[in-house]
C-alpha cells in the first residue's frame, strides 16, 4: 500500500515526540492542565506517540484522561519503534476514519486503535475522505463517548 512503507530515521534526527512534547507541554503547564488531547492525521499520530511515551515514562504535564484521534496511523519512522509497539491502557480513546480516505485508509486507523486497551478504543467510520467529518455524522457516538468519561 503506498505511503505505508517503514522509513529509517535520518541520522541525528530531532523529529518526533521529543520536540513536539514541548509544543504540547508548554501550554499545558501555563494554561492547562487539559483533560484530553485531539489530533488529526499526523497530529493524531503525534498525539498517540506522546501518550505512548507517557505510558513508558509517566509525566504529569502529559497525563491525558482521553484522546480523540481523526485519521490516525502508526508512525512509519524507525525512530518510533518502541512507541508504536506500546499499548495504551487507562486512557479512553475515540478514533474516527473516513471510508473514502485515500491518504490514511481505515485499516491503518483501526490498526492504531487496537493499541488502546482497557478500555477498548471506540472506532467510528464516516463516509468522507481525509477530513474531520461534519459533527452531524458522529454526534451521537461522540456524545456517548463523552458521557462515559469519568472526569
TrEMBL record:
Q: Where is the signal peptide?
A: none
| One MF annotation (Gene Ontology) recorded for this entry | hydrolase activity
The chain positions of domain Serine hydrolase read: 32-141
Keywords recorded for this protein, A-Z: Hydrolase
What is any Pfam family matched here?
A: FSH1
Tell me the domain of life.
Eukaryota
Alphabetical GO CC annotations of the entry are: cytoplasm; nucleus
What biological-process GO terms show up in the record?
A: response to retinoic acid
Task: Give the UniProt family note.
Answer: Belongs to the LovG family.
Record-given protein name: Serine hydrolase (FSH1) domain-containing protein
Amino acid at each position: 500500500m503506498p505511503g505505508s512503507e517503514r522509513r529509517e530515521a535520518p541520522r541525528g534526527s530531532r523529529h518526533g515526540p521529543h520536540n513536539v512534547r514541548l509544543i504540547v507541554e508548554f501550554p499545558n503547564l501555563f494554561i492547562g492542565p487539559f483533560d484530553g488531547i485531539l489530533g488529526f492525521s499526523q497530529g493524531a499520530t503525534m498525539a498517540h506517540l506522546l501518550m505512548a511515551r507517557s505510558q513508558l515514562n509517566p509525566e504529569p504535564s502529559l497525563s491525558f484522561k482521553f484522546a480523540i484521534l481523526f485519521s490516525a496511523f502508526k508512525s512509519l519512522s524507525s525512530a518510533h519503534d518502541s512507541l508504536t509497539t506500546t499499548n495504551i491502557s487507562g486512557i479512553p480513546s475515540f478514533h474516527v476514519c473516513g471510508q473514502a480516505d485515500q491518504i490514511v485508509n481505515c485499516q491503518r486507523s483501526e490498526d492504531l486503535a487496537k493499541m488502546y486497551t482497557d478500555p477498548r478504543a471506540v472506532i467510528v467510520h464516516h463516509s468522507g475522505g481525509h477530513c474531520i467529518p461534519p459533527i452531524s455524522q458522529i454526534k451521537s457516538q461522540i456524545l456517548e463517548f463523552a458521557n462515559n468519561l469519568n472526569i
